[in-house]
## 1
Amino acid sequence: MSAAIAYADSAPQAGIDSTKPDSVDVAPKEVAGEAMKIFGDTIGVPGPEVTPQPAVPVWDIDVRSYETHQRVEFFIGRFQNEARDRFTTWLERSGRYEPMIRAKLRAASLPEDMTYLALIESGYDPNAYSSAAAVGIWQLMTSTARGTGLRVDWWVDERRDPVRSTDAAIRFLGWLHEQFGSLYLAAAAYNGGPGRVARGLTRYADEIENQTGDDAFFALAEKDYLRAETRDYVPKLIAAALVAKDPTRYGFTIKYEPPFEYDSVRVGPNTPLRAIAKASGSTLPEIIELNYQILRGVTPPKDSLRVRIPVARAMSFDSAYRALPESERRAYTRVTVKKGETIGMIAERGGVSVKQLKWYNRSLYPTKSGKLPVGDLVLLPSVAVVSAAHDVPDPKIERYGTRNRGRTHVVRNGESLSAVATKYHTSVSSLKRWNGLKKDVIYPGQVLIVRGGTGTSKKRQT
């Protein structure tokens, strides 16, 4: 996999004063290393660590021990038959993101074939959205995403960023692997919630005490304790790994999409994506596809932001951006409300819908008569901005089941188990019992039962 990278000393910064030189001569590995340190979202340049797949497939997760398991065979058959077209699309899309994901898994000392978790989660779709409001390639919930360092707000949702969300998912998987000591138990916890898995292991400790490592997952799955989706999650992962790494054996002919490659530039607040497209000599769909995390067609109102553009466009970007007409660089027209005006009237004036106008004016409230307060300032977005925006649910939404759930708490960065216990007027031992914890270790984004309840019925408690 290759990626062209612009970094701090060479990246143009549209709309931002800069005294940095236009270019710096450094070795490609230095560029990759510095870019990773500074931005955390670039993936390096090709190197000797990227090796071709062997003629005979080799997996770094244990698939061979379970390939004849009834549910594994069931999912292989499903991929080959009723889900064949969809699974083919997923495999073709894997060419876009899998090389980057494998590189990051390798850097984190996790098995590269855990990339197939993203395959069964979303089919490598950055815009996947589940019934539980999990989002992106890795289907992260808002609380987990924020707990692992992602930005999730009205303007930017990094769960839709394939690179940044991969960093977060790997961090989360690392925590789960450390907690359970098994990749397959970690995978089950990723799907069904670490608390549920931990409580199951505690409940059936005597019955599965002779099972170690990944066998412990299959022993637990036989107890009819985990939800059906979680019981099937690991067999589905194994089936996906078997087929994806050896597609011809299973009758698939795959035309893989080209790898995810890009340059990076920094732009100022309120920069329309359409202006970025023009300055980079690319199309708006190209820029949107490289920056799915930017939700409203424009960079946030108070933040400069690093955005991705096609390869080899960074050096000319700054001058090209400055050469654009001011009207193309302007995201909004500021309108002062006159007597008797409604939201609909102002939206019609700008050629946008009321819903679209509200995207950029979230504190705009009409009076009971439907009129807007005289003198209020309204940001009227350009049609160019609106045309690049995603009509998606508010990222703060999370949908959890309520059956037997009890009260819960999402762990914040720096919190300890004793601090959570104090906050909810309970004890550490009670928290450990309710959540099946063997150690006093918790991590940001973890969902803890803090008062009663024995489980959850949501799609994914992460």
Note: Confidence is low (pLDDT under 50) at residues 1-13, 15-51, 401-405, 452-462.
## 2
Amino acid sequence: MDLRLPVELDDLRTLVRRVVVDHLLPHEAALERHGTLPADVWAELEGRSRALGLHALGVPAEHGGAGLDTLGQLVAAEEMGRVAVGFRHIVGTPAGAPVVAAFGTPEQHRRYLQPWLAGERWGAWAATEPGAGSDLGAMTTTARRDGAGWVLSGGKHFVTGLDRADFVITFAKTSRDRGVRGLTAFLVDLDRAGVVRGREQVMMGRGGLHSFELHFDDVVLPDGARLGDVDGGFALLIKDVSRMRLLLAGHCLGVAARLLHLAAEWGRSRVQFGRPIGEFGALQWSLADTAAELVTVRAATYQAAVLVDAGQEARAESAIAKAFASELAFRAADRTLQIFGGSGYCRDLPVEALFRAVRLWRIAEGTSEIQRMLVGRELDGGWRPAGMGIGTEQLEEVGAS
């Protein structure tokens, strides 16, 4: 398998890294310290991203995006992992925008997608509920028919970006007894009667990202607010699930790479007992473990992206990448903080903030436990790992010998 990237993706990596180094990292400490940046700074960063064509990488070109495949988006996600997660909307794809592009009507494209990508409107993804995280079939938000329209009732939480959004993509039960097969998606303007923004749910390691509760008190919607088919919401939720897992894995790879760099540099400059601590075997082993895991998980993640772009679902491969990349990032943060010692606990250095931030990734986009469960189900159904020159038949032959 040829893992060399096309020259255009090497160029993309260089471009995104320059944006990170020259324009985002200088604001990272302020974002972490204050939880946001001045409006004019956000406007400048977002405008630069749109001008460079980096604001909607995963949206098809006919809708105004870059139309990149999974591999291209992964390259950008990895580079963006090298800076605070609060900048994630600067380069990438707005959460939910590909779903609107794929399932929306021409009117929904005109009213929501196009102004969203132009920076004139802002959307948020509202799926999770207090009793429905991993178990999406446990959603209690409902939408009942009312003449030609719908009445939406219930609530969501962990709605990130609600502080600046003017509409959300949300999901509700339209057939109560069908579990996830009874969900329908809706586009809901936040100025509609009955839509109530709830309290902010303050989280650690999320400077620049603000999450809120959201309540729907008998919100009357026209049928034109429905996104996709009735009872077709689960198809929207899982359409890009492999891609989203791989992009989160890519972010974790970028975090781990930055942490490895910080730890190695600290080992060269920090002197104890008369010599740099990087000369001590214990530190070298710690760095070696992070480097080995980074190389291994990175190869698996990029291979899975190639499979997705080749038209395969790659459910197991993407689940493996997501689980092990998120756990790698956490171990890298822990090892790096140990190497920095007490200095790593200080907010003067980025290690402390990165340590707090990485803990979420073993939970978001499906917990590590859920990913392992999915891989187990795939194995039980006959899936076997293949690639890197060892195909399924060869593995089965080795197992039988």
Note: Confidence is low (pLDDT under 50) at residues 388-395.
